[in-house]
Design goal:
alpha+beta; 5-stranded antiparallel beta sheet; 19 helices; 25% helix; 27% strand; disordered N terminus
Length: 908
């Protein structure tokens, strides 16, 4: 890969730049330098908090787009909150082809977030004299945020050796744990054993080291008795002035689902408690609605003999009690008889129930301590002299989850954050049916006809799928008050998000300019905006009503609805989990870009985390392809680029600079090579072109296949200015345009070394209604504005014009009509795009006619719900029987893009 400019290289050096103002200061390790204005009227990007923080933020990172040619690659940046300048760290995320900055990332340190106008603007690059957060030696990384110190060994088996605050160690020996049950426990008579694997670190990388933000990447496997399982990547994020660490934890499933049943996946660390009195050791768990469970290892309240208010009030408040010498003899002489509870567990087995239990010692009964519905997944272990708060984000949404505190009555306590709870049933990832004898092509095709399930033996395995989770650890100098712990839990569950305003996003020209701001100025537009809101709100509600939650499920939608049972088709073949079908991800992100709604961001974020990890094989024979929709996220035998496409991830990456999402997009650069051995259409089309034995060639469609690989190459090119990715992309574009009928040729053999397609000699016509509805359209919108390739642009415009044209018009230009095609309404946005770039007003009018006609889509808006009550259903619900996820996604994308490209013609 060609080297990127020095500015783009993130390493242990300070290539990530700090740009500050003279009056601003950074906490502890960082200092400020003055910024200088540049051009007379530099662009100013307005920002807004999706949810106004009520507490000081513990560090936040966000992305900002810039219009083409407006910001030079060597620019610095200034962050303003009203008239107050705050120091930030800045690095590039993407470049325009002319070398100017397209996206930049910015990190803000710990501090208050006052209400008012926030903005970022380019300034002259200033030399920084600020200290970096990480100091490296031959054996260790030393991280100092000012409030937190962390020691990480370069070699070994722990994520960190110590976490400290105010010169006191509050946590030590952070490590990964994995519990594996080796036998199936379906039969209650079956005996089984459980093995404990421990994380073994193979690689440690300092990905970023600046004065505001530092990132350490840890990679390895879980190991036991010579066996390795579930490779992991854990990133640790540090911000100046913050007492917290954010952990982004990814595992890849490489076990045998028939034999290995995961019992627990967790992160464990020790908490030094020293000689603190047992009644001064505090346990806290956050419940729901800011509720907090608060107890001590040895309670002083409720005793037969009252120790006095000074003791009981201090203990309840988490403060140090007076010395034992101030206790009356009838209490002080009997402290040893008060049971000391050294173990506590918060267990969330479902999204609607949690329980808290405690135990004195192993071998004794667990006491049921408290119950609730949805825990905030945050706890604390420590004393008035300091301790650790800890939490799992999306705790109840990603059930089963568990927080354990052990040995709190010893000198060293132990905390485990279980991403998969050991108290739950073991993880069972076996395929949900036996294939019903579908061993021949004919039998498999029959299964596709009846349950819409593309099944083939051996293809429904979870091998290679991944899961990413987020956690936070807070090193605290004292036991937090209940209100303070509730505030910590809120920041863990809903981290503050700073984003550019919708108006700035729309004006910057990114994402192909395929969205505009909501406009309700005329009834026709107002009706569309109402329907867009309805679809989003309906699916937001369905996530809750249908409980689309769970470790492997959270973030996805269901595909199709069963009006007879009043349920989504969760158990019917290819109608169950959606797996990005027809660009559900892109719909949510465009809705967020134009609305700026916090709930839209959270839902799109959850979907991106899920579809990029769970729906894609990251290792193994199918890697890095994704799986088509199915009852099991990995169950469909059609493994496709259209699911793993980088296009679905770009929005989240550019808005948040998330490193894991960057990994997923880079993973797709060579994904097209897998098409040599995996035919994505499989049983859908028996006459699909066969892959050649030539290792340099693969059959690639110009629709879902090329749209996905083009999105990966485009993203790598703009992220790093990589020439190899650029040249492959440009070569593929040029040779698509050179086909006898451009995009209508359908597919050809691609040279995997160059990206060039062979020219098809037959002049065939091949077009699918699915070609442009998995991100191809959105990628081509961008490419036609980025790349000066007139032939490619014309080939794409021709496809946009002719897909919905009359059979006569199609025959006149292509020599034959395209026969009966589906999803005409969804393709109205292509007609609108052609109208935009050609200035053809008749095309603009035609686009709206196609949209409102609803052919292959929805003629009437499905904005009404019906109440269904018991005993007809298990739980009362509001049903919109005509809503399907395919329809909602395509209607919404067509509506938003028709408004962006041909909004002025809506009433014509």
């Amino acid at each position: 890969m060609a080297a990127a400019p020095a500015f783009a290289q993130l390493s242990t050096n300070a290539n990530t730049r700090l740009v500050t103002g003279a009056s601003a200061t950074l906490p502890a390790a960082a200092t400020a330098t003055p910024s200088k204005s540049i051009a007379p009227d530099p662009p100013v990007a307005p920002l807004h908090w999706l949810e106004q923080p009520t507490e000081p933020v513990r560090g936040v990172t966000w992305g900002v787009p810039w219009p083409k040619g407006s910001v030079k690659a060597d620019s610095g940046f200034q962050l303003l909150a009203g008239d107050t300048e705050s120091p930030i760290q800045t690095w590039p995320l993407a470049y325009w082809p002319d070398g100017s900055l397209k996206w930049t990332a910015h990190a803000l340190a710990h501090g208050n977030a006052p209400q008012g106008n926030w903005s970022v603007r380019p300034v002259k690059r200033a030399k920084s004299n600020s200290s970096l957060l990480i100091t490296e030696t031959g054996t260790h990384l030393h991280i100092n945020t000012g409030k937190l110190q962390c020691e990480i060994a370069r070699d070994g088996h722990v994520l960190f050796e110590t976490l400290s605050t105010q010169n006191q160690t509050t946590a030590a020996q952070g490590r990964l744990v994995l519990l594996v049950q080796q036998q199936d426990a379906d039969d209650e008579q079956t005996r089984f054993s459980v093995s404990r694997f421990e994380g073994k670190i193979s690689k440690l990388t300092v990905e970023q080291n600046g004065p505001v933000r530092a990132v350490v990447k840890v990679e390895g496997h879980h190991a036991h008795a010579g066996r390795q399982l579930l490779p992991f990547t854990v990133r640790l994020y540090f911000y100046a002035g913050s007492e917290s660490i954010r952990l982004v934890h990814t595992i890849i499933y490489d076990a045998d689902e028939q034999k290995d049943f995961i019992r627990g996946i967790g992160v464990r660390f020790d908490v030094p408690l020293g000689q603190q009195e047992l009644h001064n050791r505090h346990i806290r768990f956050a419940g729901e609605n800011d509720g907090v469970f608060a107890e001590a290892v040895r309670g002083l309240t409720g005793l037969r003999r009252d120790p006095g208010k000074a003791f009981t009030e201090a203990q309840v408040a988490g403060k140090a009690t007076p010395g034992n010498g101030q206790l009356s003899d009838n209490v002080s002489k009997r402290l040893q008889y008060i049971p000391a509870f050294g173990s506590y567990t918060l267990f969330q087995p479902t999204p609607d129930a949690f329980e808290i239990q405690k135990q004195t010692k192993p071998g004794h009964s667990w006491l049921q301590s408290a119950y609730g519905k949805r825990s905030a997944g945050t706890g604390y272990l420590g004393s008035p002299g300091g301790g650790m708060a800890f939490g799992i984000r999306n705790f109840w949404q990603s059930h089963p989850a568990q927080l354990d505190i052990r040995h709190a009555d010893h000198d060293t306590g132990e905390v485990t954050l279980w991403l998969w709870a050991p108290r739950a049933e073991p993880m069972d990832l076996r395929f949900y049916h036996d294939g019903m004898g579908q061993d021949t092509y004919a039998e498999q095709l029959e299964g596709l006809e009846i349950t819409y399930e593309d099944y083939e033996p051996g293809f429904g395995r979870p091998y290679g799928v991944a899961r990413t989770s987020e956690m936070q650890l807070w090193a605290l100098p004292a036991t937090p008050s209940n209100a303070e712990l509730a505030g910590i839990a809120q920041q863990i569950q809903s981290p503050p998000v700073l984003v550019p305003t919708p108006a700035w996003l729309a004006s910057s020209g990114v994402f192909g300019g395929a969205f505009s701001l909501p406009d309700r100025s005329v009834p026709a537009k107002a009706d569309i905006e109402k329907q867009l809101d309805f679809y989003f709100d309906y699916y937001k509600n369905q996530v809750e009503v249908r409980h689309w939650y769970g470790f492997w499920n959270y973030g996805d939608f269901m595909h199709a609805y069963d009006t007879d049972r009043h349920v989504w088709k969760y158990d019917v073949g290819g109608f169950a989990w959606d797996n990005s079908e027809l660009s559900t991800d892109i719909w949510l992100w465009y809705y967020l870009l134009r609305s700026g709604r916090a709930d839209a961001f959270r839902m799109a974020e959850a979907m991106t985390r899920h579809t990029g990890e769970v729906d894609v094989h990251h290792i193994g024979p199918f890697a890095p392809l994704g799986s088509r929709h199915n009852v099991m996220h990995w169950g469909c035998s059609a493994k496709q680029l259209r699911i793993s496409t980088a296009t679905n991830r770009r929005f989240f990456y550019y808005l948040t600079a998330d490193e894991r999402t960057g990994d997923l997009m880079r993973e797709q650069i060579d994904a097209v090579k897998t098409l040599q051995t995996i035919v994505p259409v499989r049983k859908v089309n028996k006459s699909a072109p066969k892959n050649t034995e030539n290792t340099d060639l693969a059959t690639v469609s110009f629709g879902t296949d090329w749209g996905a690989i083009a999105g990966a190459w485009l993203t790598e090119w703009e992220r790093t200015q990589d020439k190899a990715a650029r040249d492959k992309l440009l070569s593929s574009m040029r040779t698509i345009a050179a086909q006898p009928h451009g995009f209508f040729t359908g597919s050809s053999l691609m040279n995997l070394q160059t990206g060039a397609f062979q020219r098809e000699p037959t002049g065939k016509i091949s077009v699918s209604h699915l070609s442009a509805v998995f991100g191809l359209a959105e990628v081509c919108y961008e490419l036609t504005s980025l790349v000066d390739d007139k032939a490619f642009k014309q080939a794409w415009i021709d496809y946009c014009r002719l897909y919905n044209a009359t059979p006569e018009a199609q025959k006149a230009e292509l020599g034959e009509s395209l026969k009966k095609l589906n999803l005409q309404q969804g393709h109205s946005r292509l007609t609108a795009f052609a109208a935009k770039v050609t200035g053809d007003k008749q095309l603009a009018t035609r686009a709206w006619q196609e949209f409102h006609r609803g052919q292959g889509g929805k003629r009437e808006a499905a904005d009404q719900t019906i109440a269904i009550n018991a005993p007809d259903v298990l739980n009362p619900l509001q049903e919109a029987p005509r809503v399907s996820t395919n329809g909602a996604a395509q209607w919404s994308l067509a509506a938003m893009q028709c408004l962006a490209f041909a909004g002025d013609a809506i009433g014509q």
